Amino acid sequence: MSYQNDEPQIPQQVLESIEQANRWIKHHLPKILPLAVGALALLWLASGVYSVNPGHKGVVRTFGKETARTDPGLNFRYPWPFQHVDIVSVEQIRRIEVGFRGTQRVSEEALMLTGDENIVDAQIVVQYRVADPSKYLFRLRDPEAALLAATEVALRSTVGSMTIDQVMIEERAKVQADARLFIQRLMDAYESGLVITEVKLQAADPPDAVRDAFHDVVRAREDKEKVINVAKGYQADILPKARGEAEKILREAEGYQQERVLLAQGEAARFLSVLAEYEKAREVTRDRLHLETIEKILPDIDKVIIGGDVNQRLLPLLPLTTPGAASLLNPRGATAATPVK
Amino acid sequence: MRTNLFSVGGLVLVLLAIFVTRQVFFTVNETDQVIITQFGEYKRTIQLPGLALKIPFLQTVNRFDRRILTSDAPKAEYLTQDKKRLVADPVTRWRISDPLLFYKTVRDESGARARLDDLVLSELRREVASHNFDLVIGGKRETIMDNVAKSGREKAKEFGIEVVDVRIKRADLPQEVQMSVFQRMQAEREREAKRYRSEGEEESAKLKAETDKQRTIVLATAKQDAEKLRGEGDGTATRVYAEAYGKDSEFYAFVRSLQAYEQFLGKRSTLVLPADSDLFRYLSSPQPRTNTAAAVRVAR
Fold first, then answer.
1. Structural contact between residues A276 and B251, judged by C-beta atoms closer than 8 angstroms
2. What percent of chain A lies above the pLDDT cut of 70?
């Protein structure tokens, strides 16, 4: 009590009220104490009430040992230090991303070797949920980190057993299926209590350094198709035309054939008719035909009528009266002689 | 004053009881395993969770994790059988199977990790060195890792550790080799692109040639048939003519000749006619002549 020198600083009023409270407590303590203890006990018990949301499970541990699982709804446990409850969502689908986070690519995760010693840029999303809350809570330290590592292991292993073309184009579905099985196998071995619901290969692209070359292959493939299509177009253009032309040739030939036959038949008929009449009056008909023909010919042509021996008198006439011969000698035309009309 | 003493004594008693209780009872969690030592001397191991007892003050509880743990070894370069370099970082999953042995040999988790990493690295180095690069990357990766895990498991037993498995998280080429891989990939793709374009040209040339061939054949076939048809027409005509004209060939020659004269004697022809020809016999005399043969000489 030697340090009570400081006390006078406290106002008299305060000291009095403390004294008053003290007296009050001493007077009432026997009545209040059980009440206070009871209230505390009640509060303690009430802190054992907890609710489990739909899709969740409660795992109750009694002195550290798992003793019960509770379903959604209002539940009770004995509070500390007896029981402890962990509530785990068993229906929520969770996801992890490997090779990227959000929109950011993580190169050292994304770049991986393929079986044919190429490098591919792969990004994957794994969806999972907790199937066994006890295992999830108590069997594996940091299940999410383990899943991330297992995903990398599985993806690289799967990609490593395929060629780059298989990974990027042909076997994407197989990459996903194989990786999923692999991840599940690892997570089961690690007693993670997790179930992999889906593995999605978000991207499987060539690395930036060679992207252009890969795109050029795609373009080349399109070029190939284009050139082939042009050739097919040529085919589609040329062949029908050729068939049309062939048809034309045939029809022309058929026409010619018919024409020839019909003409021949006509001429034959004409001849036969004339012949029939001719046989009735040979001499007269012959002379008539002859004269008719000459009559038709002669008006239009140059005529030279020579009396006496034709062979002797013809000679001096020839160069003068033959326009054909004159034009042969003189290209400007036969103007030297005027034929007799 | 008496009540005051009572309450203070009661409080001390309660605190003492709690202290002693905590010294006697302890919980082993689901995630824990425990060894009890008495002044450093091993007494027993508890691997099952729940409430447990010990002698107060004399015995100490040493807790260890019962879960599966991870050890992620640092990246290192490995040499494959075909002398290629490979950068890999193995991940080991393990658990403490014998806490006493563990406590004796490696003390705690970081000690265990150091030992495990050494062990796994040397096993992995040995396994990788006896396989070719492509097998490490692809086909045999699992077998290799199983072997590493198996021998690692054997050796880790002496630390009270059970190795669950060993995996290569990443297996990549060293940075400087990566560039040459990119160059090779580029060259391969350029070759492929060229091949596609050439294939396109090839296919196109084939198609065009085939088209031209088809067209030629179609036209030639048509011409062949056309010639046949024309021939048939000519043949039939010839037969018809022959049949008709054969009835009186001399008369045919006469009529046909007249037709021919009509055809080829045009305006540019000059006809030399002897004045005493039959044509002109009535020009000089109205009397019929005995000789009736008409002669016409034609000159062009």
1. no
2. 87
Contact in structure between B271 and B265 (CB atoms under 8 Å): yes
Inform me whether the C-beta atom of residue B171 falls under 8 Å from chain A C-beta atoms: yes
CB B37 within 8 Å of CB B64: no
In this prediction, residues A108-130 reach a mean pLDDT of 91
Nearest-by-CA chain A residue for B33: A64
Inter-chain touch B168–A156, beta carbons under 8 Å: yes
Give Cβ neighbours of residue B294 (< 8 Å, ≥ 6 apart).
Answer: A290, B277, B278, B279
ipTM above 0.90, yes or no: no
Question: Which of B 36-75 lie inside 8 A of A, CB atoms?
Answer: 48-51, 65-70, 72
**pLDDT tens-digit map of B4-45:** 677 788 889 988 988 888 888 999 999 999 999 999 899 999
Q: Which residues pair with B45 in a beta bridge?
A: B35
DSSP 8-state class, residue B80 = -
Confidence of residue A7 (pLDDT cuts 50, 70, 90): low
B261 contacts in chain A (CB < 8 Å): 293, 297
Residues of chain B with pLDDT under 50: 291-300
Question: What's the gap in Å between the CA of A170 and the closest CA on chain B?
Answer: 16
On the question of pLDDT at A56 being above 90, the answer is yes
Determine the residue of chain A that is closest to B194 in CA distance: A220
Establish how many alpha carbons lie within 13 A of residue B217's alpha carbon, considering only the half-sphere containing its beta carbon. 7
Do the Cβ atoms of A239 and B274 come within 8 Å? no
